[in-house]
Amino acid sequence: SAAEKDGHDWFMRKEIYEQPQAVADALLGRRTPSGALQLDEMRLSEQELRDVDKIIVIACGTAFYAGLVAKYAIEHWCRIPVEVELAHEFRYRDPILTANTLVVAISQSGETADTLQAIRHARVQGSRVLAICNTNGSTIPRESDAVIYTHAGPEIGVASTKGFITQLVASYLLGLYLAQVRGTMFGDEITAVVNDLEEMPAHLQTLIDRKDEIYALAAELKDARSVLFLGRHAGYPVALEGALKLKELAYIHAEGFAAGELKHGPIALIEEGLPVFCVVPPRGRDQLHDKMISAIQEIRARGARTLLLVEEDDPAVASYADSVIPLPRVPVLLQPLVAVVPLQLFACELASLLGHDVDQPRNLAKSVTVE
Ligand code: G6P
Questions:
Q1: TM segments (predicted)?
Q2: For residue 159, with 0-12 CB atoms within 10 Å meaning exposed, 13-18 middle and 19 or more buried, which class applies?
Q3: 76-86 residue pLDDT tens
């Protein structure tokens, strides 16, 4: 009923709007009085965490993209090699697992059969399993050695939104906790990132307050036959997620690419008027931002309609943008948290304008409990 949806037409829309609160809840109680990070359902000893020499993140769907972001953060902060794999591919390829491998299973529902089979396989091989999960007492956390609950609250819309964003938060917390235990970051560096995370609810609210601009864009593009998404570094998984949302909700052909890969194939798809969302990395000491700008110039020269998700007041982009979607200024590793929101709003609105059932897209299930 409308009451259950707080007066919104779709649970998904309501759940997108709940993200500032979901992120705040996901961060609640994670610091001790002395300021150190604590993860109460961690259950793995500090020694076990110090012994970890490889992490394999396994997940399906949107949760897999959260895993891709986790790789960028954990490798950078902890210097532990991280592989990310779709659970169904992992399970049947004879993966190399030892007692020092930490398998991180990301699953909103905690019931996805592919992910469950994968963690059972990992445990039989002697690896430790940590679940990042939104559903208390579900099967995957029950069968894991440790769990970080995401505290997003129940998610009804089949397409994950607040589930995803809190999976990102939990992944960052895991990375920071490992860095704390293993000593790969100083305490004040960890605190600085946690402080940045604590500013996220306000940033997310700013993005949601600007929803009408995104809804207008959805109305303009509702007859598009294909939409592309480009990103690089931590923005690459965001591009994949933006495309997935559009496919599953609006039934429009959509693909996400790593911007650096353009010249190796995808640029052949560019034609006059093709909408391309580009997640522009924040300006920084690295060259990510400038390299993205040159990719944008390349596609624009070939007629693409460029929709740039870019931090506000970036003077470099204006001349290459058909539309600018301003993002709050945040560090590159945390940018997925803010960059995904306009893409969620876009897919939700566009699907709704096309008359589709946003909460129950055709052929999809909230939780896939068969392999
Ligand atoms: C289904 C849902 C997706 C979800 C995926 C993984 O395919 O439609 O929205 O991302 O399962 O679900 P999980 O509960 O394991 O995160």
A1: none
A2: buried
A3: 999 999 999 99
